[in-house]
Design goal:
CATH class of one domain in chain A: Alpha Beta
Radius of gyration of chain C: 18 Å
Distance between the termini of chain A: 22 Å
CATH architecture of one domain in chain A: 3-Layer(aba) Sandwich
Chains: A alpha/beta (387), B alpha/beta (359), C mainly beta (151)
Strand order of the largest sheet of chain C: 8-7-6-9-10
CATH superfamily of one domain in chain A: Thiolase/Chalcone synthase
Helix content of chain A: 25-40%
CATH architecture of chain C: Beta Barrel
Distance between the termini of chain C: 64 Å
Number of helices of chain C: 2
CATH topology of chain C: OB fold (Dihydrolipoamide Acetyltransferase, E2P)
Strand content of chain C: 25-35%
Structural class of chain C: mainly beta
Oligomer: heterotrimer
Number of strands of chain A: 11
Shape of chain C: globular
Structural class of chain A: alpha/beta
Largest sheet of chain C: 5 strands, antiparallel
Number of helices of chain A: 14
Strand order of the largest sheet of chain A: 3-2-4-7-1-8-11-10-9
Number of strands of chain C: 10
Strand content of chain A: 15-25%
Radius of gyration of chain A: 19 Å
CATH topology of one domain in chain A: Peroxisomal Thiolase, Chain A, domain 1
């Protein structure tokens, strides 16, 4: 397998609306910053992989327009897999390099959820029109039904979930690209209106506009280009069955456990708690960070809720989670997964805005569909896992 | 290390009464049966197809399990599924995976695709003008036709021959034969394109199983090797391009030939995504089979193009290109040594992908 | 100051339910809920589909399941979203007696004003029964909602 690394990361500021720019202009902003970060130019790029979740932007296949800012005249491929899009775009770009066909490949994801007056009806069209769409289910409701079960089965409390939000909001204050920047306490979360029971407003992500680009390079190029690339240790993804009613137990995210197991095996990780220094997880809703920490082996089943409350997942804790402020504070849906990878890469490069001291191995995660998909990538400051 | 096709599954193309969840499943089963394999022997699924054309956001939620993706690695290209084959090739070539199920889906009968495509235009400069997808192809056709003085009869002849070949291809959608007179007397729909010069909108799915060389030989003593791949993108702004040529196709072809280490001369079979008869000629030229403006001369010869009938007879938006690649694979299985398939997407063939298969 | 252009997508779709789902909807007219049994793993899949995703085999053995079951999970929506039902409304996954998979459905018959009180009545594991439309039309909405069974 040909080794590859992340050599550049560029993000736009994420906002509800970016009225100042068109779709390709936003793409260009992220791509330019990533090229600048890597210290290379457009001429050095061999191919582009573009990710977005189509109907959100009110433009179908916006990649066709946005490609004017990324890669026309070059090989250009479009990935779309729901909430995992950002990370599967990264995975595809990595595979472009790992295959030996290309040396330098840019993954870029632009999403303008803010131009959509309301995102939930779009998410509802992901639900089967024959059996399930009438139910009005969108992303919030599928997270809420996870919370209901977790609370009843494991005794997870509203306060514990609120701590996840408090932690993410505190982290976002340090991230110049984050969308929601507001210091909040547990009481603020608990007193915010219930959106989809038991989830409250401050437990749910915003709708964000923005773009992110991550540049991948072959081992040889990566070493030429920079001293501290973020080496890709492994990637993994998984698809569960289509109907949400088929999930055997919503109190655990077993499909993520399976994907995690595969990832750890590929990277040679025995104990994720020891071997992984920081995680950027796709948790647009508080409960999901808890489920993800459990599924990925950072907490025992039913114990995940304690981590934020006890400070473990704060940036100075034993298992810093979402030091960027996470998806709870910034969610440009189809780009979000690539933001996770970008932030994870910056952590192991030692350049993150909310840096975890001495981070060498970082995990990036995204989920998509109605709890159907997961994607994972593991990056490190070393070419191989060092213990 | 090579990557080969070991299983081919093509459904009927036309109008399906069944949801494409079931059609996709049928294609996947056919490919598994063709390869004499079971679902557990594949280790990843690579899908290709669009969302809005089929009325489902994240349509791969629906097709991933149908393709055999339950609890397996999965990814989806939101473009013609010919791109999914290229991605599957890279996933195997890199050593990350061994066996991929590539599945393309198109299901045009449930919504007006012209409207869906119109919404792919930016809402500022282009969409308000109401330029349909077909109009962009018509503008290209006209630019090409005028530049090289291509006669209406030559275009009609392309359609006649396409229909004749489709009539013998069991998976093709439109299979009625027509005459040059029929074509020329059919109504002018989008100048300069007449009704019989436009492709249908079809439903159907294609599944191809790709495997790493050693494993491929275990599954099938004679895999069909993926020898070359190339893809490229043109400027979105049609006004900034020379519409009389398919430049993204030309660049994609150059990349594929370079990878395969061959040129047009060694190619024995060609499957091109001809959304108009003029695009049939333009693609042949862009891929090096004829000099610019001379594509028409090939039509009268026995040049082996589109034995499937091409996109003019079968066009399932999202998998038309992979449908052509699948037919190319069938021809190689039947004794052809090397062939090339081609697909385009976007307004005025903005994107192109080329696949070279061989023995 | 930048120009903002309003746009709205109105795309008509006619979705084909296919033979399997059509049979399910026909049965709804008789206030019956049908599932299919996978010949390999023997799971009864509700709502029915033409193949088992796990075993990748055709399903053709039809089984009638009860219109009664237990709540696997539930949420009550209090926010207003364009084009989605008026709040509040409760949605959950119900595992019907005789089925091995859950079905997404509305829950009702309970005052939803206070979410904590409502959740007390709609706990995970609560037995519920379908409340049907008087004249079912063969659509999923023929089941108006599931409501707790008084014990």
């Amino acid at each position: 397998m040909r080794r590859a690394a992340v050599i550049g990361v560029g993000q736009t500021k994420f906002r509800t609306r970016r009225d100042d720019k068109t779709h390709p202009e936003l793409t260009r902003e992220a791509v330019s910053r990533a090229l600048e970060h890597a210290g290379i130019t457009m001429d050095d790029v061999d191919a582009f992989v573009f990710g977005t979740m189509d109907p959100f932007d009110g433009i179908n296949c916006p990649d066709r327009w946005s490609s004017t800012a990324a890669g026309f005249g070059k090989p250009f491929m479009k990935i779309s897999t729901g909430g995992t899009t950002g990370l599967t775009t990264g995975i595809a770009a990595y595979q472009h390099v790992a295959s030996g066909l290309f040396d330098v490949v840019v993954a870029v994801c632009t999403q303008r959820v803010g131009e959509n007056v309301d995102a939930q009806p779009v998410l509802n069209t992901a639900v089967d029109p024959i059996y399930e769409r009438h139910s009005g289910v969108g992303a919030i409701s599928v997270a809420a039904i996870q919370a209901t079960v977790h609370m009843q089965k494991y005794g997870t409390t509203e306060e514990q979930m609120a701590w996840v939000s408090v932690k993410d909001h505190e982290n976002a204050l340090k991230n110049p690209y984050a969308h929601i920047k507001k210091k909040i306490g547990v009481e603020d979360v608990l007193s915010s209106p219930v959106v989809s029971s038991p989830l409250k407003l401050y437990e749910c992500c915003p709708r964000s506009d923005g773009s992110v680009a991550v540049i991948f390079a072959s081992e040889e190029k990566a070493e030429q280009i920079r001293d501290d690339p973020a080496w890709i240790l492994a990637e993994s993804s998984i698809s569960d069955s289509y109907f949400v009613g088929d999930r055997p137990d919503l109190a655990v995210w077993d499909s993520l456990s399976i994907a995690g197991r595969r990832l750890y095996r590929l990277a040679g990780i025995d104990d994720p708690k020891k071997d992984i220094d920081v995680a950027e997880l796709y948790s647009p809703f508080t409960i999901q960070e808890i489920l993800e920490l459990e599924a990925l082996g950072f907490a025992e089943k039913g114990e995940g809720a304690k981590l934020a409350e006890e400070g473990v997942t704060f940036v100075d804790g034993d298992m810093p989670t979402n030091p960027s402020g996470g998806v709870l504070c910034t969610n440009p849906i189809g780009a979000t997964g690539l933001v996770r990878l970008g932030e994870a890469s910056l952590q192991v490069m030692g350049e993150a805005s909310n840096q975890v001291d001495g981070a060498e191995v970082a995990l990036a995660h995204a989920w998509g569909g109605t709890l159907q998909f997961h994607a994972l990538m593991l990056v490190s400051s070393h070419k191989k896992l060092r213990r | 290390m090579k990557v080969g096709i070991v299983g081919i599954g093509i459904t009927h193309f036309g109008v399906h009464e069944e949801p494409f969840y079931n059609v996709a499943y049928t294609a996947a089963r056919k490919a598994l049966e063709d390869a004499e394999m079971e679902r557990h022997e594949i280790d990843n699924v690579v899908l290709g197809g669009y969302d809005v054309s089929v009325g489902r956001t994240i349509s791969n939620m629906y097709t991933a399990p149908a393709a055999g993706g339950y609890l397996k690695d999965e990814i989806r290209v939101s473009d013609d599924a010919a791109y999914a084959l290229a991605l599957a090739y890279m996933r195997i070539k890199s050593g990350i995976f061994d066996v991929a199920m590539v599945l393309g889906y198109g299901h045009c009968s449930e919504t007006p695709i012209e409207l869906v495509e119109l919404l792919s235009l930016d809402p500022f400069f282009h969409r308000d003008l109401g330029i349909s997808y077909q109009m962009s192809y018509a503008m290209q056709s006209y630019a090409y036709k005028m530049k090289y003085g291509v006669e209406d009869e030559t275009a009609a002849e392309v359609v006649v021959r396409a229909r004749k070949r489709a009539s013998k291809y069991e998976y093709a959608h439109v299979r009625e034969e027509v005459s040059v007179d029929d074509v020329l007397s059919s109504e002018m729909v989008i100048f300069p394109l007449r009704k019989l010069e436009l492709p249908p909108w079809s439903d159907g799915c294609v599944a191809l199983i790709l495997a790493e060389e050693t494993i491929a030989r275990r599954i099938n003593p004679e895999p069909i090797w993926v020898e070359g791949l190339g893809w490229n993108t043109e400027n979105y702004y049609m006004g900034s391009r020379d519409l009389a040529e398919l430049s993204s196709t030309r660049k994609a072809g150059e990349m594929a030939y370079r990878m395969a280490g061959c040129d047009a001369k060694s190619v024995e079979a060609v499957e091109i995504m001809d959304l108009t008869p003029y695009h049939h000629l333009m693609a042949l030229e862009a891929l090096g089979f004829a000099a610019d403006g001379k594509g028409g001369e090939l039509i009268e010869s026995d040049f082996p193009t589109n034995s499937s009938g091409g996109a003019l007879c079968t066009n399932a938006h999202g998998t038309t290109g992979l449908f052509l690649t699948a037919n190319l694979a069938l021809q190689i299985r039947d004794g052809c040594d090397r062939g090339i398939s081609h697909a385009v997407s976007g307004y005025a063939a903005q994107n192109s992908i080329v696949t070279i298969l061989g023995v | 100051m930048v120009l903002r252009i309003e746009a709205k997508w109105e795309i008509p779709y006619v979705h084909s339910a296919g033979e399997h789902a059509t049979k399910f909807f026909e049965a709804l007219k008789e206030k019956k809920i049908l599932g299919v049994k996978c010949p390999k793993c023997q799971r009864v899949l509700v709502p029915p589909r033409a193949f088992c995703e796990r075993c990748h085999v055709d399903t053709d053995e039809w089984v009638e399941v009860k219109d009664e079951g237990v709540i696997e999970t539930v949420t009550i929506n209090y926010a207003r979203f364009t084009g989605l039902p008026d709040p509040p409304y409760a949605v959950g996954i119900i595992k019907l007696d005789g089925a091995d998979t859950g079905m997404l459905a509305y829950l009702g018959g309970v005052d939803l004003t206070d979410w904590k009180k409502a959740h007390e009545k709609l706990k995970v594991g609560t037995r519920v029964k379908a409340v049907w439309k008087d004249r079912p039309e063969g659509r999923i909405t023929d089941i108006l909602y599931f409501k707790p069974v008084e014990e």
